[in-house]
């Protein structure tokens, strides 16, 4: 091997190592999984008369779901951008409060694909982030159909929301995150019961707790 070829080989090897180090410092990817606690938030509806009974519909309790997917991160000094995509399940309950009778619990469940793009700052191992999230609804089941056949809470196949929260990176390979997610899209359809129309815009909100592993 000539001296010129040795120098060229050395330069190429150094450039390759520098690129690998830069990539490792700037871009990373991994997987994540966790649980969520979601509920439906809407203005309570009172005085519904279906001809046989009178009842109210009010916001019920939160339910637990899970999420699983992949995460990426692009570092920019102390700031970073973190796009993710994961499968998410959740829902909530609606209470049917019958006048002079018992309270019935109506379950609402959904599965969807969530795509958040978060912008954050990193202070040591701690992180704080905020950003939009697009959600693609995959399936929905709800007990409101016992009141109005065919009724859907998610009248749109895609919805928009936001996420905000904090996290901590441990051992450079493990991350823990806690976030709040709210909805920005108008959901639901008008309930028509007993000849009267009632607006029901039941927007999901949830807390997400995640464990991530980076490669």
Structural class: mainly beta
Proportion of residues in helical segments:
10-25%
CATH topology: Porin
Q: How many strand elements? A: 12
In CATH terms, what is the architecture? Beta Barrel
What does this structure look like?
This protein is mainly beta and 215 residues long. It has one domain: Porin, CATH 2.40.160. Helix content is 11%, strand content 66%. The protein contains 1 helix and 12 strands, in the order H-E-E-E-E-E-E-E-E-E-E-E-E. The protein has an 8-stranded antiparallel barrel with strand order 1-4-5-6-7-8-9-12. A hairpin with a 2-residue loop joins strand 6 and strand 7. The radius of gyration is 24 Å and the shape is elongated. The two termini are 37 Å apart.
Outline:
With 215 residues, the chain is mostly beta strands. The chain contains 1 helix and 12 strands; from the N terminus they run H-E-E-E-E-E-E-E-E-E-E-E-E. The strands form 2 sheets. An 8-stranded antiparallel beta barrel has the order 1-4-5-6-7-8-9-12. Strands 10-11 form a two-stranded antiparallel sheet.
Entry keywords:
215 residues; mainly beta; Porin; 8-stranded antiparallel barrel; 11% helix; 66% strand
Write the topology of this structure.
Blueprint (H helix, E strand, L loop, with lengths): L2 H24 E15 L3 E5 L4 E6 L3 E14 L2 E20 L4 E21 L2 E17 L15 E13 L3 E10 L6 E4 L2 E4 L3 E12 L1
Antiparallel strand pairs: 1-4, 1-12, 2-3, 3-5, 4-5, 5-6, 6-7, 7-8, 8-9, 9-12, 10-11
């Amino acid at each position: 091997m000539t001296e010129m070829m040795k120098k060229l080989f050395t330069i190429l090897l150094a450039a390759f190592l520098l690129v690998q180090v830069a990539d490792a410092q700037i871009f990373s990817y991994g997987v994540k999984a966790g649980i969520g606690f979601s509920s439906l938030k809407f203005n309570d509806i009172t005085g519904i008369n279906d001809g046989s009974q009178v009842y109210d519909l009010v916001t019920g309790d939160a339910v637990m779901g899970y999420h699983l997917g992949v995460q990426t991160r692009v570092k920019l000094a102390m700031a970073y951008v973190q796009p993710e995509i994961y499968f998410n399940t959740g829902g909530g309950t609606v209470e049917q409060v019958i006048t002079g009778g018992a309270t019935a619990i109506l379950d609402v469940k959904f599965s969807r694909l969530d795509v958040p793009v978060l912008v954050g700052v990193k202070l040591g191992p701690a992180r704080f982030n905020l950003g939009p999230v697009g959600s693609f609804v995959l399936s929905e089941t709800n007990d409101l159909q016992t009141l109005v056949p065919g009724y859907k809470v998610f009248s749109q196949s895609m919805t928009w929301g936001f996420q905000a929260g904090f996290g901590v990176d441990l051992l450079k390979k493990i991350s823990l995150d806690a976030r709040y997610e709210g909805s920005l899209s108008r959901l639901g359809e008008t309930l028509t019961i007993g000849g009267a129309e009632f607006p029901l815009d039941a927007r999901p909100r949830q807390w997400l707790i995640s464990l991530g592993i980076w490669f």
